[in-house]
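BUG: 3D viewer hangs when loading the predicted structure for this chain

Environment: internal workstation, default settings.
Expected: structure renders.
Actual: progress bar stalls at 90%.

Input used:
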Amino acid sequence: MRVNGTVARGLLGALLALPLAIAVAEPGRAQDLVVEVHNEASGTIEGLYMVPAGDEEWGENLLTEFMEPGDAVEVSVEDGESICEYDIYAMYNDGGDFEATVDICDGEPVVISD
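Structure tokens produced before the viewer hung:
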């Protein structure tokens, strides 16, 4: 079947735009949010966990390598634009820890300190 080039380009464009149109048409779908986390503590962090406030399970460690004092990392938080209050837990390599509830929707970095 032979198709006119203009029609074919129009059809191709419509097909390529379809996934975007579907994503936009799902208003209830929450977006992930990238959160910057700073280690301003005196210890090295070996485990970092963030879950919606009140969750009973910490889930998986978000770090791929240790965070030395002064380091910062960006972590992607699922549904971060629909849930703002998150519990954060950091485990230091000396056995200490840090736990707090933070608002990740304010656009400010999360700071872990002594």
